[in-house]
Design goal:
By secondary structure, the chain is of the alpha/beta class. It has one domain: P-loop containing nucleotide triphosphate hydrolases (Rossmann fold, 3-Layer(aba) Sandwich). It is built from 11 helices and 8 strands. It has an 8-stranded mixed sheet, with helices on both faces. The longest helix is centred in the middle third of the chain and has 18 residues. The radius of gyration is 18 Å and the shape is globular.
Length: about 260
Amino acid sequence: MLLAVSTNKGGVLKTSIATSLASIYSQEQKTLIIDADNQGNVALTYGRNPDQYEYTIYDVLAQNVSPEAAIDKINSNLHILPANDELAFLEFDVLSNPNDYPKPFHIMREKLTPLLASYDVIIMDAPPNIGLITGNILSFVQDIIIPFQPEHYSMRSFIKMLEVIDNFRGSHNKNLKVSGVVGTLVDSRTVLHKQILEQCEEYCEKNNIRMFKQIIPRSVQFANSIAYEQQPAVMNRKKNPATEVYFNIKEELDNGKK
């Protein structure tokens, strides 16, 4: 499986979804998380300092470093390809040297495809915008999960993201598909959240897009787990309502592929 968690909005639990799903999959399958966001939050999730790596995804994409040289092994089954602030320079490199990058949206496909043979599951954490890196992700992966936070203007951002995905499917990656949309940071007590979630569900149904039945409510447990235990809460193997949601999303994701 080659999956990205992506949307053009920040603060909607992209990294939490990517790292939690990867941590769950790694319990039985060899799994890699590729951090494509220069904030470096994947490394931080597992207690690493992203600024202390000798090599990151930037070196793989722009400096011809092999991806294996940049991989950090969290444990035997869970590895990460980290990112840090250097990734922000990739767009400048590409724009400044067009002769070196004749296919600017295919850089990841060219550099990262060899990793597919080494992992059962690869999950990418995308940046919170639509640009060169997101374009590369959409040209490379097979499946997209879109987090959807039910706030003002969310539907507009969501529809724009779907338009971008459709464009890349037609121009760069015919195999790209939306695996599903998941509601995040949901407060079911508010009328606004219920109304916007209903709008999203109606839009998805009308356009034949799956919306996960499981939503992710607001919770401080994951933040506490990363701060104090330096790992996603799902790695504690303690089932509770806050962690169960990610196991349910993984189950829905798997069932959708059968």
